[in-house]
Inverse folding.
């Protein structure tokens, strides 16, 4: 790895000040993506600002029927949280299926969504659940947050502190894993929300996570796996790689959507 | 508890591995340690216009930056292929020059161009990125069929059309005639997918040059340290053998990939002399994908003819083998003498012809990977057999049985002489264990759950115990493939066995000790196995081709015979008895039928005190032997795979996997079963998960575990492993070998099962969920 | 360079290290605890797994500097003198061949059993196979590793 300077931030302000001290600084949480990228010399931040020790960045609470998850909460903590299991068990299930046990014990929800890997799981959940991403500066609706491959609405010097997730009436997640990386080849999160059914798909889209109008309409009308059968899932705009072409991904979207609804 | 032949003795070597005390090459750090990082070509095919090292030389910690012109200028020789295969027109194979550091041209992505030596690994790697190489790009070709096409990029000047050789075996005319007269001909086009061996320990080298002694030491991840030393001395001119010590300490898996002597080891040795520093290089996984020799990569077409009774009358095969950019050490033999000679399978086939064209491409060199040629042969025959059975409406097991070789020795039309076997016994055992009779019920039950259940067979045979030296010499091998051993009985009666075999997971420290402890009736704790160091072991050919048991242990037996003879002479002399009456039993050397005896250690002591030895006997008790096998050995067996396919996604689950193997004598069933498990896992990997992919420009797409799918625990079932053995008549222990069987027998069983499940025989490896789903779509 | 102090295998250690030092490097190169191995560079093989504050972590994807004050246990420190039941089970069931993945495999397996016991969950063969997804073995085909974990779980 290239040399870097590590700083364990005590507060959000401290973190932002430390980041400003470098030319190409990066926030560090679980490091599951960032450190791997640095090892391959694909990233060389001169400053690494560890945000995990900042007060209030970790943990799960309920604000009425809204789930509030600190950005530095690990996947394992989300998976095991009684609060999550109570308000949105599908999210706990999703967290329990990210990466492998070691990744889940290190990786964080904030890190995952800030990176917005097109095959990451959390973006699908947050988008489908109509979550709000809370930063040190503002609150951003998930619909506005995930902009495209590895890009988000986050500004420089903006830190995710928490995500707020309204309790869905029902939700489910089904993932088809890419056999080598274990990332989502296709992951479909379905949620019954106050605004009707919302369906978000990760792993498949050329522009990253996206919602699917046809599936949402069908599931809004009839929340059942059978309702998915009649939906046309186009392969336009779907990714192609050695593991899956657009036609196969389109098929998997339907199959995973059915399984997500069936639970 | 017995520790003799047939006992499940826990491994003596385990304690250091389970406590973190193993000593692998990267664990070694010498005084004065410096680190190497290689500058590698990002292009598949290009001319090197210039190399500018000035920026890198100025960087922190950089000791030197060395290039290929310096290397060849110092007389370091080109890397060679050690097996000369001759084309059918009599012309020699076209071996292109391969310098450890490229001088004029690069021929694959990852080809080493220069090396940075620095104080730390991080400094070396950062500086390697600062070496500026100016390339003139050339068109590249990654697949063998395209490399043979008109107008393909020319990779080596001395191999027109990229053809290395055009070789054949068998009688073409007779085979054509047999096919012409056949009642049924099955025709298939089959691809054997390219794989990366992926031992979990990446390759590593620590090279030290002693200026005072003009002597080199190389610690390296090798399956055969003596072969490494031989080649480094004789061909690469690093140092004469007595000035070069090669140590392969604990080695974390090999699977073929650690047979060869790669550019990195050569360069580290040379750089240690140039820089007067100990030079260490350890590959990371990405570098391993770019540089470790790959395996398989065949494209074949085949015709198998049957008479009206379902008897095979002829097999004709045309194969194109991708060699990559250079000819690796054993590369030429893999798709010829290790492949085409096994095309008779377990069957009595009168006429076989196979033509093989070896081809250069702009990819990593291809060489032996677990099985080496035999998996390719087995896949071809066993896919053909299953397909033929389906086409002719015959039961696949019974079609095989009807064609089995039944009497031994059996000479095939492709130069092998099978020495023993009972193929029907293995088939029967596998069918019973797999409950083939209950398959229809299980299939119906699976269907009720929406799953497609299928069953597939593979009756494999392989040639192991590599190999009779004169035979392989006559076929072009540059070395003999015997093995050596030395048995040293210490004055206190404990024993050290020095072996030229190398253990990198196979458990030699246990199995080899078992045969010694049993032979002399001493506790297994009193036997230690020494291997992997050219200064300790006189010579050896190493471990590959499932040879350590059949060849390596046979050498130990020969040495033990000599020890026993001397022990008997000493005891006869001391006990005043006839040598013929001396027996070794229960830790004692006795006069049969009397109470006269010496404890085993007393004989050892007598040999070394030499106070009372027979006249003219030399003191000491140490004997060496070289064992040269008289024939290959022929492990064989039947594997039955049962799968369930999810038609919605194409996901295939192996729900039952049954193996019945004939390995001859088994020394330690626990270890043998472990070898089968691992082989099956690699076979399943080839069949369902693994594939090296290059794009059209020769860029490696599967360059990490993010895209190259390694089998994980959840991808695999538990295996039912059974043995029905016949003793191998060719060696003293009756061993056939077990290291490669799983990797050889498994892939066709898996593909036969999946194609049975989905009702579409057109399915290539790896049968990924996408591939299976698409085959299902095509079938419906 | 940053000075860090942490407890490794029960002993307090203090070192000045470059901030970019990975825990795997810190253990192998600075402390010369070479039982922790590195088998890939994409955080997938798990040969590098150690315990950090009692939980399994991939040391190749963990910065040592972030662990100031932490408790780290490596394969060398898993048991004091004797063997841990997991170590015993791996040898009893022949759950290792070349030994390279073994330290990480054992450390991950201990973590699996600890978690299942803490949560009162049953560790089935299927669960073990699923939980081992972060550890790759090329030698054993996993059959005997799964048996070893099952056996150790009964004894832990």
């Amino acid at each position: 790895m290239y040399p870097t300077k590590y700083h364990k931030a005590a507060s959000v302000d401290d973190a932002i000040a430390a980041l400003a001290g470098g030319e190409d600084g990066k926030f560090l949480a679980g490091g599951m993506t960032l450190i791997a990228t640095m090892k391959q010399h694909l990233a060389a931040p001169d400053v690494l600002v560890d945000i995990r020790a900042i007060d209030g960045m970790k943990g799960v609470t309920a604000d009425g029927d809204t789930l509030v998850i600190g950005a530095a909460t690990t996947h394992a903590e989300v998976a095991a949280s009684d609060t999550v299991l109570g308000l949105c068990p599908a999210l706990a299930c999703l967290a329990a299926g990210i990466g492998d046990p070691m990744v889940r014990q290190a990786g964080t929800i904030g890190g995952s969504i800030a990176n917005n890997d097109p095959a990451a799981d959390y973006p699908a959940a947050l988008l489908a659940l109509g979550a709000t991403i809370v930063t040190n500066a503002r609150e951003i609706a998930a619909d506005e947050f995930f902009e495209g491959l590895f890009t988000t609405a986050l500004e420089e010097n903006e830190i995710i502190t928490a995500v707020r997730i309204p309790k869905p009436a029902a939700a489910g997640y089904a993932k088809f894993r890419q056999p080598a990386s274990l990332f989502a080849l296709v992951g479909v999160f379905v949620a019954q929300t106050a605004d009707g059914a919302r369906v978000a798909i990760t792993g498949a889209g050329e522009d990253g996570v996206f919602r699917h109008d046809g599936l949402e309409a069908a599931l809004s009308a009839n929340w059942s796996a059978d309702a998915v059968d009649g939906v046309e899932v186009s392969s336009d705009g779907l990714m192609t790689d050695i593991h899956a072409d657009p036609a196969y991904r389109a098929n998997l979207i339907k199959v995973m959507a059915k399984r997500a609804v069936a639970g | 508890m017995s520790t003799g032949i047939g006992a499940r003795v826990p491994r003596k070597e385990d304690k250091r591995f389970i406590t973190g005390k193993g000593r692998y090459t990267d664990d070694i750090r010498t005084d004065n340690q410096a680190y190497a990082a290689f500058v590698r070509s990002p292009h598949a095919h290009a001319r090197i216009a210039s190399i500018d090292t000035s920026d890198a030389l100025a960087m922190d910690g950089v000791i030197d930056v060395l290039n290929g012109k310096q290397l060849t200028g110092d007389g370091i020789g080109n890397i060679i292929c050690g097996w000369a295969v001759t084309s059918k027109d009599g012309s020699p194979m076209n071996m292109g020059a391969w310098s450890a550091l490229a001088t004029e041209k690069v021929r694959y992505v990852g080809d080493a161009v220069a090396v940075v030596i620095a104080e730390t690994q991080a400094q070396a790697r950062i500086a390697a990125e600062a070496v500026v190489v100016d390339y003139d790009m050339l068109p590249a070709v990654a697949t063998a069929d395209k490399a043979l096409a008109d107008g393909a990029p020319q990779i080596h000047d001395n191999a027109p059309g990229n053809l290395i050789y055009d070789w054949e075996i068998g009688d073409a005319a007779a085979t054509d005639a047999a096919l012409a007269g056949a009642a049924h001909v099955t025709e298939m086009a089959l691809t054997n997918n390219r794989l990366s061996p992926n031992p979990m320990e990446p390759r590593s080298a620590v090279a030290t040059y002693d200026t005072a002694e003009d002597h080199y030491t190389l610690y390296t991840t090798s399956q055969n340290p003596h072969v490494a030393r031989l080649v480094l001395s004789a061909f690469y001119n690093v140092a004469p053998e007595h000035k070069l010590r090669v140590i392969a300490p604990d080695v974390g898996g090999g699977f073929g990939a650690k047979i060869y002597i790669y550019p990195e080891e050569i360069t580290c040795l040379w750089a240690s002399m140039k820089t007067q520093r100990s030079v260490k290089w350890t590959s990371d996984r990405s570098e391993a994908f770019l540089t470790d020799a790959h395996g398989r990569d065949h494209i074949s077409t085949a015709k198998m003819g049957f008479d009206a009774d379902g008897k095979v009358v002829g097999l004709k095969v045309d194969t194109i083998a991708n060699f990559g950019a250079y000819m690796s050490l054993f590369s030429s033999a893999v798709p010829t003498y290790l492949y085409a000679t096994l095309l008779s399978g377990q069957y009595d086939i009168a006429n076989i012809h196979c033509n093989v064209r070896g081809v250069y491409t702009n990819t990593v060199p291809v060489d032996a990977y677990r099985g080496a040629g035999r998996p390719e042969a087995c896949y071809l025959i066993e896919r053909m057999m299953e397909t033929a059975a389906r086409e002719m409406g015959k039961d696949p097991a019974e079609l095989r049985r009807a064609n089995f070789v039944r009497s031994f020795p059996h000479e095939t039309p492709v130069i092998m002489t099978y020495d023993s076997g009972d193929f029907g016994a293995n088939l029967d055992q596998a069918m019973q264990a797999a409950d083939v009779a209950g398959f229809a019920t299980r299939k119906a039950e699976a269907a009720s759950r929406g799953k497609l259940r299928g069953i597939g067979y593979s009756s494999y045979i392989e040639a192991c115990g590599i190999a009779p030296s004169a035979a392989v010499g006559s076929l072009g091998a540059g070395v003999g493939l015997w093995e050596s051993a030395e048995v040293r009985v210490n004055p206190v009666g404990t024993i050290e066995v020095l072996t030229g075999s190398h253990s990198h997971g196979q458990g030699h420290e246990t199995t080899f000790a078992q045969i010694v402890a049993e032979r002399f009736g001493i506790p297994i704790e009193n036997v230690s196995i020494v291997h992997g160091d050219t200064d300790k072991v006189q010579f050896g050919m190493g471990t590959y081709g499932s040879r350590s048991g059949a060849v390596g242990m046979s050498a130990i037996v020969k040495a033990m015979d000599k020890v026993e003879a001397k022990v008997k002479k000493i005891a006869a002399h001391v006990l005043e008895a006839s040598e013929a009456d001396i027996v070794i039993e229960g830790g004692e050397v006795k006069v049969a039928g009397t109470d006269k005896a010496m404890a085993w250690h007393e004989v050892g002591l007598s040999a070394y005190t030499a106070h009372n030895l027979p006249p003219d006997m030399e003191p000491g008790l140490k004997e060496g032997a070289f064992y040269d096998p008289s024939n290959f050995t022929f492990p064989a067996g039947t594997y039955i795979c049962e799968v369930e396919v999810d038609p919605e996604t194409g996901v295939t689950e192996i729900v039952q996997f049954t193996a019945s193997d004939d390995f001859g004598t088994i020394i330690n069933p626990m270890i043998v079963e472990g070898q089968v498990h691992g082989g099956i896992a690699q076979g399943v990997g080839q069949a369902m998960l693994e594939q090296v992919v290059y794009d059209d420009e020769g860029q490696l797409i599967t360059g990490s575990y993010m895209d190259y799918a390694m089998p994980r625990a959840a991808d695999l079932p538990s295996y039912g492993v059974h043995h029905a053995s016949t003793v191998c008549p060719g060696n003293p222990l009756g061993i056939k070998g077990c290291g490669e069987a799983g990797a050889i027998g498994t892939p066709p069983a898996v593909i036969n099962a999946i194609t049975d499940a989905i009702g579409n025989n057109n399915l290539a490896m790896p049968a990924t969920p996408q591939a299976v789903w698409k085959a299902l779509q095509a079938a419906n | 360079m940053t000075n860090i102090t942490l407890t490794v295998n029960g002993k307090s250690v203090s070192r000045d290290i470059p901030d970019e030092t990975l825990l795997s490097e810190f253990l192998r190169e600075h402390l010369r605890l070479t039982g922790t191995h590195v088998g890939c560079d994409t955080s997938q093989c798990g040969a590098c797994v150690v315990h950090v504050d009692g939980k399994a972590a991939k040391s190749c994807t963990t910065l040592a500097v972030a662990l100031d004050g932490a408790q780290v246990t490596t394969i060398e420190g898993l048991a004091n003198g004797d063997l841990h039941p997991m170590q015993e089970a791996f040898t009893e069931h022949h759950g290792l061949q070349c030994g390279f993945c073994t330290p990480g495999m054992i450390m991950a397996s201990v973590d699996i059993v600890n978690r299942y016991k803490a949560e009162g969950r049953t560790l089935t063969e299927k669960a073990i196979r699923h939980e081992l997804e972060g550890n790759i073995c090329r030698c054993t085909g996993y059959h005997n590793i799964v048996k070893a974990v099952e056996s150790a779980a009964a004894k832990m």
